[in-house]
C-alpha cells in the first residue's frame, strides 16, 4: 500500500469520543456527499470504495447516534471493484442530518473534523519523495470551513483550484508531521519522522560529499597548473638554478602531483605550513609567467 493508504487505514481505526463524533461524520459527509436513494423512497445513503471508511461511519452512527441503517455492496463493473454503502433510515433530508450532527468547535472536535476530511478526501505524499498533504473538496464552502479548522488548530494551509475542485494543501514537513499526530495517526507520524530524518541525513552526507569533491577538483586543477609552471621553469632555466626552498618544493610537487599543500609541507625539511607552501608555489608560478612573457616577446 501507499503511505497515504497506510495513514487512512490507521485513522479508520481511531474512533472519536462521543462529543467529537458529529465533527468527524460532518467532515466525511461534506467531503463525500450524501445521495438520495431513488429505489428506497428517498432514503439517504453513502457509498465508497473504501470499506474501512464506510464501516467507521456505520459504527459511529450506530453507537453515538443510534440511527437505524442497512449496508449494501455492489459491483462497479467498469473498474472491477466493489462499492460499499449504508442506507440511513428515518432521516430523508440531508439538512436534517446535518442539524443532528451539529457540533461546537474546540481543539478535539476540530481534530476529529480534520481526521474525517482526510479519510474522505485527503492524501499525503510518501516522505521518501516529497512533503505534501492535501484535501480535495467539491464545494467552496467546504474548503473554507476546512481551512478555518486547520487555522483554528494553529497551522497554516494554502488553497488552489484543480479541475473545478477546491484543494487545501500543506507543504512544510514539520507541519505535516504534526497534523498526522493531531488527526490520531501516531504510527504513521513516527514512520514519517523516521523517513524525514533519513532524508535530512542523506542531504547532509550528499552536501558534504559534493563539497569534498569540489575541493578535490579545485586541488587537482591547481596541482596541474603548478606542474605546468614547474615544467616551463625546468625547460628554460633548469630547476637547479632555483633557490633551495623553491627547488625543494618544485621537486616535491613533481614527485607528488596529487598531494595537498599540507602534505607537501610535511615532506619538507624542516616541515613548512600550508601557507608557506602556497607562498613558494605562487613564486614558482610567477617565475613561469615571466619566462612565458619573455619567450613570447622574443
Give the mean pLDDT. 86
Q: What sort of overall outline do the alpha carbons produce when their principal axes are compared?
A: rod-shaped
First-residue to last-residue Cα separation:
77 Å
**Overall SS class:** alpha+beta
Neighbour order of strands in the largest sheet: 1-2-4-3
Q: What's the domain count?
A: 2
Q: What's the CATH topology label of the largest domain? A: Endonuclease I-creI
H/E topology pattern: HHEEHEEHHEEHEEHHHHH
In total, the number of strands is: 8
Which CATH top level class of the largest domain fits?
Answer: Alpha Beta
Helical segment count = 11
Give me the CATH superfamily of the largest domain: Homing endonucleases
Q: Which architecture of the largest domain would the CATH scheme give at its second level? A: Roll
User: What is the helix fraction of residues, given as a range?
Assistant: 55-70%
How much beta, percentage-wise?
Answer: 5-15%
* CA gyration radius, whole angstroms: 35 Å
Secondary structure elements and their pairing?
Layout: H1 3-12, H2 18-32, E1 35-37, E2 43-48, H3 51-65, E3 69-76, E4 81-88, H4 94-100, H5 107-121, E5 122-124, E6 133-137, H6 140-152, E7 158-162, E8 165-170, H7 173-183, H8 186-236, H9 244-255, H10 261-267, H11 274-297
Antiparallel strand pairs: 1-2, 2-4, 3-4, 5-6, 6-8, 7-8
Amino acid at each position: 500500500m501507499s503511505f497515504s493508504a497506510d495513514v487512512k487505514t490507521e485513522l479508520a481505526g481511531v474512533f472519536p469520543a462521543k462529543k467529537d463524533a458529529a465533527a468527524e461524520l460532518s467532515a466525511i459527509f461534506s467531503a463525500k456527499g450524501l445521495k438520495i436513494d431513488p429505489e428506497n423512497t428517498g432514503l439517504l445513503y453513502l457509498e465508497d470504495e473504501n470499506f474501512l471508511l464506510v464501516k467507521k461511519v456505520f459504527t459511529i452512527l450506530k453507537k453515538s447516534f443510534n440511527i437505524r441503517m442497512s449496508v449494501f455492496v455492489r459491483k462497479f463493473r467498469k473498474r472491477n471493484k466493489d462499492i460499499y454503502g449504508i442506507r440511513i433510515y428515518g432521516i430523508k433530508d440531508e439538512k436534517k442530518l446535518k442539524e443532528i450532527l451539529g457540533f461546537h468547535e474546540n481543539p478535539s472536535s476540530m481534530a476529529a473534523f480534520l481526521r474525517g476530511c482526510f479519510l474522505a478526501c485527503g492524501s499525503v505524499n510518501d516522505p521518501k519523495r516529497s512533503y505534501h498533504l492535501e484535501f480535495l473538496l467539491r464545494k467552496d464552502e467546504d474548503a473554507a470551513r476546512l481551512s478555518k479548522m486547520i487555522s483554528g488548530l494553529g497551522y497554516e494551509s494554502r488553497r488552489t483550484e484543480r479541475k473545478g475542485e477546491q484543494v487545501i494543501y500543506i507543504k512544510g514537513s514539520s507541519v505535516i508531521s504534526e497534523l498526522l499526530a493531531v488527526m490520531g495517526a501516531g504510527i504513521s507520524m513516527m514512520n514519517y519522522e523516521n523517513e524525514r530524518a533519513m532524508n535530512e541525513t542523506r542531504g547532509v552526507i550528499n552536501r558534504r560529499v559534493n563539497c569534498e569533491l569540489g575541493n578535490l577538483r579545485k586541488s587537482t586543477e591547481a596541482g596541474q597548473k603548478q606542474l605546468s609552471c614547474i615544467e616551463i621553469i625546468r625547460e628554460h632555466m633548469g630547476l637547479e638554478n632555483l633557490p633551495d626552498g623553491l627547488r625543494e618544493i618544485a621537486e616535491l610537487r613533481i614527485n607528488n602531483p596529487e598531494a595537498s599543500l599540507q602534505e607537501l609541507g610535511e615532506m619538507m625539511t624542516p616541515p613548512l605550513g600550508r601557507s608557506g607552501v602556497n607562498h613558494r608555489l605562487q613564486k614558482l608560478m610567477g617565475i613561469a609567467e615571466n619566462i612565458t612573457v619573455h619567450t613570447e616577446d622574443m
